[in-house]
Amino acid sequence: MGSIAKDDRAEVIQAWYMDDSDEDQRLPHHRDPKEFVSFEKLDELGVLSWRLDADNYETDPALKKIREDRGYTYMDFCEVCPEKLPNYEEKIKNFYEEHLHTDEEIRYCVAGSGYFDVRDHDESWIRIWVKKGALIVLPAGIYHRFTLDTNNYIKAMRLFVGEPVWTPYNRPHDHLPARKQYVENFLEKEGAGRAVDAAA
Ligand SMILES: CSCCC(=O)/C(O)=C/O
Ligand SMILES: [Fe+2]
Hints:
Layout: E1 13-17, H1 39-44, E2 48-51, H2 61-70, E3 74-80, H3 88-95, E4 99-100, E5 105-119, E6 125-131, E7 134-138, E8 144-148, E9 154-160, E10 169-170, H4 177-187
Antiparallel strand pairs: 1-6, 2-7, 3-9, 4-10, 5-6, 5-7, 5-8, 5-9
The structure holds the ligand CSCCC(=O)/C(O)=C/O and fe (ii) ion (FE2).
The ligand CSCCC(=O)/C(O)=C/O binds next to β3, β5, β8 and β9.
């Protein structure tokens, strides 16, 4: 008898729609009742994810294959905590400003945890909680932000195709080709809401 394999990404990646309270950004911000978001839904927005063996990232064949398949030649680490991140307070503030990049944002959580928030088709925030072992790819042009959770620590591997460009473009930057391409690829599909600023 065949059986459908359980998607074990859920052990290290969970996503849900956020409430609109102004409380501490590091809290979960679940709606009441909770509204979880499926991996299929994230896929529709172009957000990819894997669960990997974070204790063995140096020799992990699964990570090697993803890097080869997707051309992720560059790799470094970013540790977010006051002791390790220069200009910690400023960086934390900037990470949580809604922004986009002109390339994919690829982060592999090898320790700790944190939240990547992305905009849905109708502009609602989806909160993606990544824990040790979660690799996520945010597509170029998606509006997003990052915050630590209440554990206050993450160590993320950063991957990139070629020489890295980390520039954040705070919203609105709808005129950028990367944004237009994202809207065309993921937001303008039949049945999807539009997410273009009125001023664009
Ligand atoms: C956990 S890596 C720090 C966050 C970051 O690099 C970024 O660009 C957030 O959008
Ligand atoms: Fe970013």
